[in-house]
């Protein structure tokens, strides 16, 4: 019976029409001859989160608590993958359907609390719509299992010449094939069904099975490794603190894992485990930058408060791509293996990975703080810092400027987000002494990591914490259409 229902639902073009209508309120669709379908009203109520830049992402009212992922990378370097993910979900409003972001592999099977559930996977729209036996209600938990296999989906980056999401690096010369994730802003949906929005961070358990000779690395703390058939191995990682989906790192390569001394800058003085992953054959000059990681953690924890996770390090990748602040394991291209970039990605562990965005238009709250960390690091190394700030101001003056909250995709990672964002923080800093500024940064992290943040939150916090002068300075830097005057004490 279930099986029958299942195939009917999957073939139903009416359900396709309904899925396409998802999010369009007030329209009615009329499914015919699909007796097992729930009433149309129940199917058309899946509303996306309503991101101002990416209006189709996510599902409003859905709260994913945990993704428990079993991934099999049978042939590293290719885009095929297979796996099973169990999502532990709850809701903040009754949800008659679940609508996950998923561009990726074919869906083989969906289960709701272990029982087969009707679903429709629209790979073009990138939505996997699942029909629960009854609506998911606030205060209740459900476990939803999705089994998938095939080629990862493709998501061109909104403004860089790359595809985000599951990366396939083919074997070349004496370099073996490799894979890794590079998902900002919405690439995780190329290989995993997710609520792909930073306002719904979740914990992750990630098990990755790879062939003989390969190593997997992922966000979180590594658990015991287990033998798999044919000499393969299964690596397990526990990411116990919630992180946004785009910050999930998964790497498959022939790695050398290098452990370093733990750094006691975690929550309540706990140890932060230190490990880096270098592709076999990585040159010494590439590795050199990473010897500073422990010191970077100490300097940044002094300014921002305890490092939020239980482990930190980098996984080095060979393609020329931008570095990314993947949680507990920054993704660092060989070509960006320098201290400045490492400081930047490390700072994102607080700003972006722990403190998450309410909306992609607020991304300067990630990039401005991470860029500002570059100055804090330079000053901790004994540099005056003045040159850096002057350099930023000159750079901002040479580019188009705009208020800090972005209004288009093209603006997300522009000079304003990074440089004007950093200058805005400097404009706050010059209104107070460094002890007050440190308390301000620490207070922002400590007070706001439990819910997604906005510029309005930071403005209000700045006024209450530091007073009217600081508040007005930030407001000018956040909102003025022109570049404000150089920030000086
Ligand atoms: N957040 C990254 C940084 O500044 C930059 C970035 C934006 C990125 N989009 C990306 C990196 C896509 C890799 C892929 O550190
Ligand atoms: Zn950044």
TrEMBL record:
GO BP term (any one): proteolysis
EC number in record: 3.4.11.2
CC cofactor: Zn(2+)
Chief place where the protein resides: cytoplasm
Cofactor note: Binds 1 zinc ion per subunit.
CDD domains registered for this protein in UniProt: M1_APN_like
GO terms, molecular function: alanyl aminopeptidase activity; metallopeptidase activity; zinc ion binding
Positions with a binding annotation for Zn(2+): 344, 348, 367
Domain named Peptidase M1 membrane alanine aminopeptidase: residues: 328-462
Compartments, record wording: Cytoplasm
Gene Ontology cellular component terms for the protein in this record: cytoplasm
Pfam annotation, one family: Peptidase_M1_N
Residue ranges of every copy of the Aminopeptidase N-like N-terminal domain listed in the record: 66-246
Reactions catalysed: Release of an N-terminal amino acid, Xaa-|-Yaa- from a peptide, amide or arylamide. Xaa is preferably Ala, but may be most amino acids including Pro (slow action). When a terminal hydrophobic residue is followed by a prolyl residue, the two may be released as an intact Xaa-Pro dipeptide
InterPro entries listed in its UniProt record: Aminopeptidase_N-like_N (IPR045357), Aminopeptidase_N-like_N_sf (IPR042097), M1_LTA4H (IPR034015), Peptidase_M1 (IPR001930), Peptidase_M1_dom (IPR014782), Peptidase_M4/M1_CTD_sf (IPR027268)
Signal peptide range in chain numbering: 1-29
Family under the similarity heading: Belongs to the peptidase M1 family.
Protein name per the record: Aminopeptidase N
Species annotation: Deinococcus radiopugnans ATCC 19172
């Amino acid at each position: 019976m279930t099986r029958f229902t299942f195939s009917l639902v999957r073939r139903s073009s009416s359900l396709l029409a309904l899925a396409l209508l998802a999010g369009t309120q007030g329209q009615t669709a009329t499914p015919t001859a699909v007796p097992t379908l729930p009433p149309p009203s129940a199917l058309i109520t899946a509303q996306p989160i309503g991101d101002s830049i990416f209006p189709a992402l996510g599902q409003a009212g859905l709260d994913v608590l945990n993704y428990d992922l079993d991934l099999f990378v049978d042939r590293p370097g290719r885009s095929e993958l297979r796996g099973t993910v169990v999502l532990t979900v709850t809701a903040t409003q009754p949800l008659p359907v679940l609508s996950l972001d998923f561009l990726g592999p074919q869906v083989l099977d969906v289960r709701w609390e272990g029982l087969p559930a009707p679903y429709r996977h629209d790979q073009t729209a990138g939505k996997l719509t699942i029909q629960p036996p009854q609506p998911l209600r606030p205060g209740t938990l459900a476990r939803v299992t999705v089994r998938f296999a095939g080629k990862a989906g493709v998501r061109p980056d909104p403004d860089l010449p790359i595809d985000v999401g599951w990366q396939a690096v083919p074997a070349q010369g004496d370099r073996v094939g490799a894979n890794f994730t590079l998902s900002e802003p919405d690439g995780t949906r190329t290989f995993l069904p997710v609520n792909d929005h930073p306002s719904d961070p979740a914990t992750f358990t990630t098990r990755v099975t790879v062939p003989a000779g390969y190593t997997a690395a992922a966000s979180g703390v590594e658990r015991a490794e287990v033998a798999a058939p044919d000499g393969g191995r299964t690596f397990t990682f526990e990411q116990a603190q919630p992180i946004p989906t785009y910050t999930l790192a998964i790497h498959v390569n022939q790695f050398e894992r290098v452990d370093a001394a733990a750094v006691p800058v975690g929550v309540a003085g706990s140890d932060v485990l230190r490990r880096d992953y270098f592709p076999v054959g990585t040159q010494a000059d590439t590795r050199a930058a990473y010897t500073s990681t422990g010191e970077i953690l100490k300097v940044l924890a002094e300014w921002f408060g305890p490092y939020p996770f239980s482990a930190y390090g980098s996984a080095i990748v060979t393609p020329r791509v931008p570095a990314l602040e993947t949680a507990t394991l920054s993704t660092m291209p060989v070509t960006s293996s320098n201290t400045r970039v490492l400081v930047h990605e490390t700072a994102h562990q607080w700003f972006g990975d722990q403190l998450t965005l309410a909306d992609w238009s607020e991304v300067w709250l990630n990039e401005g703080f991470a860029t500002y960390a570059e100055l804090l690091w330079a000053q901790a190394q004994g540099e005056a810092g003045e040159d850096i700030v002057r350099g930023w101001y000159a750079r901002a003056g040479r580019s188009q400027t705009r208020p800090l909250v972005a209004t288009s995709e093209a603006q997300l990672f522009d000079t304003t987000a990074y440089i004007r964002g950093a200058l805005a923080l400097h404009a706050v800093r010059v209104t107070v002494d460094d002890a007050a500024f440190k308390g301000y940064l620490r207070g922002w992290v400590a007070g706001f990591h439990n819910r997604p943040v906005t510029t309005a939150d930071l403005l209000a916090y700045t006024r209450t914490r530091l007073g009217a002068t600081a508040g007005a300075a930030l407001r000018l830097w956040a909102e003025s259409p022109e570049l404000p005057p150089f920030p000086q004490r």
